[in-house]
Amino acid sequence: MRLAREQKFATLRLFNLDIEVTTVCNLACRTCYNLPAQTQIMRVEEFSHILADARQLVGRLGMDGLWLTISGGEPLMNEHLWDMLRLAQAQGVEGIAIITNGTLVNEETAKRIRSLGISEVMISLDGASERIHDAIRGLGSFARTIGGVKAMMEHCSGTFLGCTLTLTKLNMDEIKAYVDFAFDLGFNYAWINPPLYCGRMVQSQLSISYEEHIRVMNLVRELDTRYFRQGFAVYYNVPYYPLTDPISPYLDLSTACPWGRNNLTVTTDGSVLPCLYSRDLRLGNAFEQPLVALYQSSVLKGFRDGSLLAEPCRSCSYRGFCGGCRARTYYLTGDWFAADPWCPLVRGSTEEQLRVFPSGLPKENVGGMQHNRTVD
């Protein structure tokens, strides 16, 4: 099952649309990037409008279909969620993913997810222990999240299930334990998100340094290489993570950045963003302007053709896959299109220096393992 989602994207040209269906959340995580000024809940009629518009965009781009990622806030706090999901399935979307903190998932919820044929559920889990997770997400949240995970495992086994962690000072030294824990729980993958300096992260004092980021990125590559025989994936969410691949950069396109290419985010109030982390770059409003027009904005066009990018990102041979993390670049430099200060190539590393070979594993054996990846 490791490759279920990647294979769909590999065989079909899909557009991913993130829709934030509510700003309401039952937690107050110290790392949250989404801090809206007011409480809002999307209505089914608004969701339907966005969905119809997105289908027009997909048709205009000549793509094969639409993938929806549903988030919030906590999407399960929108009482209209199930009606929205049924509507999306009836419209023939290629897949639906839900991002949730898992605390509200129970047997009934898991069975609903299974009955609707939801493709993927991503559960936010910030540590392998109650001590670490609760220090970030609040007292008692770990136990409730694990309860939700177990409900999904028992009643929704056919759904692609992943856990996501926001990397902080509190959990950066326990990544191996976290990945082992996720595998033992039965997840299909673990997704490690380096922090972005927005939302509550600005005041949390939990951010990590560039050197810590590189250390964890290399560890994640080693863990992924060691786990892939067992149908379990480990990802590091920066667009240049594929450069650590010991076989070939961007062989695995699932981590290439879709910013400005095949991805948009629509917030609860209709604001359209290039990605869910780019909170300060509003392209327009989906309730007032067609998504086609917003996708063709000068900002996104200038990113796609490279004309707005600073060097060395503009001339980088990987610009078409990467382009740097625009959100992180903005929060670190104040410029959306500056060179990404967390890219090791920008820092002077060579491609050969970035490739990570598992400790104790001969390089000549890695290729054979790469070709043996299978779907359970």
Explained architecture:
The chain has helices at 4-11, 44-61, 81-90, 107-115, 130-137, 141-155, 175-185, 201-204, 210-227, 291-295, 298-304, 326-333, 351-354, 363-371; strands at residues 14-20, 65-71, 95-100, 120-124, 160-166, 189-193, 233-236, 263-266, 271-273, 284-285. The radius of gyration is 20 Å and the shape is globular. α3 links the parallel β2 and β3. The longest helix is centred in the first third of the chain and has 18 residues, at 44-61. The chain is built from 14 helices and 10 strands. The chain has 376 residues and is of the alpha/beta class.
Determine Rg (CA atoms, Å): 20 Å
DSSP strand content: 5-15%
The number of E-state strands comes to 10
* Most strands sheet: 10 strands, mixed
Report the mean per-residue pLDDT as an integer.
90
N-to-C series of helices and strands: HEHEHEHEHHEHEHHEEEEHHHHH
Helix percentage range: 25-40%
Determine the oligomeric state from the structure. single chain
The strand order across the widest sheet is 7-6-5-4-3-2-1-8-9-10
Distance between the termini: 5 Å
User: Structural class per helix/strand content?
Assistant: alpha/beta
Please, how many helices? 14
Low-confidence stretches: 361-376
